[in-house]
Write a structure and sequence with these properties.
disordered N terminus
C-alpha cells in the first residue's frame, strides 16, 4: 500500500479553472491580438457607441451638478434605461439572441410593470454586472479616451474580465467623439438625461421603449443608425486606432467574412471548428464529403497567425486531456493514490489496441506504449518527416480518424462518457505528438516568431515552439522514442510540474491545485472532468458582424452589404 501525504479537502480543488494555464495565458494573448477589443464578454456592437455617448452625457450635462453621483453610477442609470427598453421594444422575445446586460432583471421588470407606471431608476437593478464593466477595457483599447491610455505596448494582455474605468474626469478622443456623435444622431433627438436629472428619477416602460426604439441593440440595423456606419470603420481599422493589433482584427474579420460566404454556399453556418480546419488544413468534411476552403493570398498572414493559434489549442487540448486522464486514474485507484509509473505501464494494455481496432479500424502491431511516433504513422502508411504534407494539411487531413480536430471532438465529450481514462490518455498522446509535428512546419516563419512573442514567462507559458524545444533538449530523436517514454516526459514536465508550478505561482499553494505528486505518487484533492479549450471569442466576433449588418442572423451567410463590404476590404488590401 502506498504511504505518502494525502490532501483531504477535495472541495478546494473543485473550483480550479484552466489548471495548466493553457487558455488564460498564451491562448488569450494570441486571441487578444487577432480579435483585439472583441472579447468573450463583448457580444453586441452597439455598446461600443452607446458607452462613449454615456461618457459624454455625463461629462457635459451631469458632472458637477447636484445630481452627480460619479461616472460609473450615471452610466449604470443609462444602461438600465437601455436594457429595459431593449426588452420592451422586442416584447420580451429577443430575436437576435441575448447580449443585453441586465437582461434577466429587465425581463422581470417588464413583465411585472404596466407600461405607464413609473419605475424608480435607483431601486431598479441597483447592483450587478454592467456593460461599462464588460466593454470598458475594449473601448479604452480602441483609443476612445484621452486620460486612459490604450494597451499599445502590451496589447497581448487585454483583460477579458469585467474592469470598470473609474476616472470621473475622462474626456473623449476624436474616435470617441465620432462614436458618441453617431449614436446621438441615431437617437433622432431622443435623450433620457433630463428625465434622470431629478431628485428621484423615474422612468416608464413606454419611455424606455421609445428610447430603445432608436438606440437599442437590435435597432442598429435601422437605415438611420449612423453609428453602424462608424462602427464598421472602427472595427475594420478605418479610423486608425492606436496599436498594431487593430490591423490584425481587421484582417481576422475579413477572413471570417470570406469563410462565412463560402460556408453559406455549401449550405453551412461557419463554426469555430470549421474555421480552425480552414486555416490549418484548408479543408473540412461535411455531409457531401471533403470540401476545400479558398483563402485569398492577401490574407495569408492572418491565416498563418490563426493556424498557429489553433495548433497551440490542439496541443493545449492534448495536455488538458492528459490531466483529465491522470485525475481520473487517481480517482479509480483503490486508496486514492497511484504511482505515475503504474499509469504509464497501463499503456501496454491490450484493451487500448482493441479500442483502436474497433473505433479507428486500425490494428497496431505492438502494444501502444511500445510504439513510437514514427511507427504509429508508418502503421497508417504515412511519412512523418514530410514537412510539406504537414504544412498543407494533406497528412492526417479531416477525413482521417486521427485528424487533430476529430480527436478533440472525442476528448471534448462531457466526462468522457464513451471512452475510458486510459484510452483517453493514449489518444491525448497521439494528439500531442501530431499537433507538434504539424507545428514544426511553422518553425522559423513569421507566425512562429509571433507565437513566441506571446510568451511572457518561459517557466509558466506552454506553447508549441517552447514545448518542441524542451522535447528536443530531452531527446533530439524524440519521434523514435516509445509512447511510454513520451508520456512520462510530457506528464511530468508539461502536466504535473506545470500544474504545481502554476498553482504556487498564484500564491495559493495547494488550495489552487487538484493533483499533487510526491516521489512519483499522485494524489488528488478535486475533480477535473472536461476538456474545455476552444476559440471562445469566435461567437462574439460573428455576433458583432451580424449586428453590423454584414452577416445574416439566420444562416451566417453574407448580406448584400456584407458582400459589398468584403469586396471593398479585399480591394483595399491591393492598394
Amino acid at each position: 500500500m502506498l504511504k505518502t501525504l494525502i490532501w483531504t479537502e477535495p472541495k478546494l480543488g473543485d473550483k480550479v479553472q484552466d489548471p495548466l494555464g493553457l487558455e488564460l495565458r498564451v491562448s488569450t494573448r494570441m486571441a487578444g491580438q487577432l480579435l483585439h477589443c472583441i472579447t468573450t464578454i463583448t457580444p453586441r456592437a452597439r455598446y461600443y457607441s452607446f458607452l462613449p455617448w454615456c461618457v459624454r452625457e455625463y461629462t457635459t450635462k451631469v458632472k458637477g451638478t447636484d445630481y452627480d453621483k460619479g461616472l460609473n453610477a450615471w452610466i449604470r442609470n443609462y444602461e438600465k434605461v437601455l436594457a429595459l427598453g431593449c426588452i420592451a421594444a422586442n416584447n420580451g422575445d429577443r430575436p437576435t439572441g441575448g447580449g443585453v446586460v441586465g437582461n434577466n432583471e429587465a425581463v422581470s421588470k417588464y413583465s411585472a410593470t404596466n407600461s405607464e407606471d413609473p419605475i424608480s431608476i435607483y431601486e431598479y437593478r441597483p447592483k450587478g454586472s454592467t456593460a461599462w464593466g464588460q466593454y470598458g477595457t475594449s473601448i479604452v483599447n480602441l483609443g476612445c479616451f484621452n486620460e486612459i491610455n490604450p494597451s499599445i505596448e502590451n496589447e497581448i494582455d487585454e483583460d477579458e474580465t469585467e474592469s470598470e474605468p473609474t476616472a470621473d474626469d475622462i474626456t473623449l478622443t476624436p474616435i470617441g467623439e465620432l462614436l458618441a456623435d453617431a449614436y446621438q444622431s441615431a437617437l433622432c433627438g431622443l435623450n433620457p438625461s433630463d428625465s434622470l436629472m431629478v431628485d428621484r428619477p423615474m422612468i416608464t416602460i413606454r419611455f424606455a421603449e421609445t428610447f430603445a426604439g432608436k438606440g437599442g441593440l437590435d435597432q442598429i440595423s435601422l437605415p438611420e443608425s449612423d453609428d453602424r456606419k462608424q462602427l464598421l470603420d472602427v472595427f475594420f481599422d478605418g479610423v486608425q486606432s492606436p496599436g498594431a493589433s487593430h490591423q490584425l482584427r481587421k484582417e481576422s474579420l475579413t477572413l471570417l467574412l470570406v469563410l462565412c460566404e463560402q460556408a453559406s454556399q455549401m449550405g453551412e453556418s461557419l463554426t469555430w471548428k470549421q474555421f480552425g480546419e480552414a486555416v490549418v488544413y484548408g479543408k473540412s468534411t461535411l455531409d457531401e464529403g471533403l470540401i476545400h476552403w479558398e483563402i485569398p493570398d492577401k490574407l495569408a498572414r492572418i491565416q498563418s497567425y490563426w493556424r498557429a493559434f489553433y495548433l497551440h489549442n490542439y496541443m493545449s487540448s492534448a495536455l488538458e486531456a492528459m490531466l483529465v486522464a491522470l485525475v481520473s486514474q487517481v480517482g479509480e485507484s483503490e486508496d486514492g493514490q497511484i504511482r505515475l509509473a503504474e499509469i504509464i505501464e497501463k499503456l501496454e494494455s491490450s484493451s487500448i489496441l482493441d479500442w483502436y481496432s474497433e473505433h479507428a479500424k486500425v490494428d497496431f502491431p505492438m502494444p501502444f506504449g511500445q510504439m513510437s511516433t514514427i511507427s504509429f504513422l508508418e502503421t497508417l502508411g504515412l511519412e512523418f518527416d514530410n514537412a510539406d504534407c504537414w504544412a498543407d494539411g494533406s497528412i492526417l487531413d479531416p477525413e482521417s480518424w486521427f485528424n487533430e480536430a476529430k480527436i478533440i471532438d472525442i476528448l471534448r465529450e462531457r466526462k468522457w462518457a464513451s471512452i475510458s481514462s486510459l484510452n483517453g490518455l493514449s489518444i491525448s498522446l497521439i494528439l500531442f505528438v501530431t499537433s507538434l509535428l504539424r507545428y514544426r512546419s511553422t518553425q522559423k516563419t513569421d507566425a512562429d516568431h509571433w507565437s513566441m512573442n506571446n510568451v511572457a514567462d518561459t517557466n509558466l507559458d506552454l506553447c508549441p515552439p517552447l514545448v518542441l524545444l524542451k522535447l528536443e533538449q530531452w531527446d533530439e530523436d524524440w519521434t523514435s522514442r516509445p509512447f511510454a517514454d513520451i508520456a512520462h516526459f510530457a506528464l511530468s514536465q508539461f502536466v504535473i510540474r506545470q500544474h504545481e508550478y502554476l498553482g504556487y505561482d498564484k500564491g495559493q499553494g495547494s488550495d489552487s491545485m487538484i493533483l499533487h505528486a510526491s516521489e512519483d505518487v499522485l494524489t488528488r484533492t478535486g475533480d477535473y472532468e472536461n476538456v474545455t479549450i476552444g476559440n471562445p471569442r469566435f461567437k462574439n466576433a460573428i455576433g458583432i458582424l451580424q449586428d453590423l449588418g454584414l452577416i445574416k442572423i439566420d444562416d451566417n451567410g453574407l448580406t448584400r452589404e456584407g458582400e459589398r463590404w468584403l469586396e471593398i476590404q479585399l480591394h483595399m488590401m491591393d492598394l
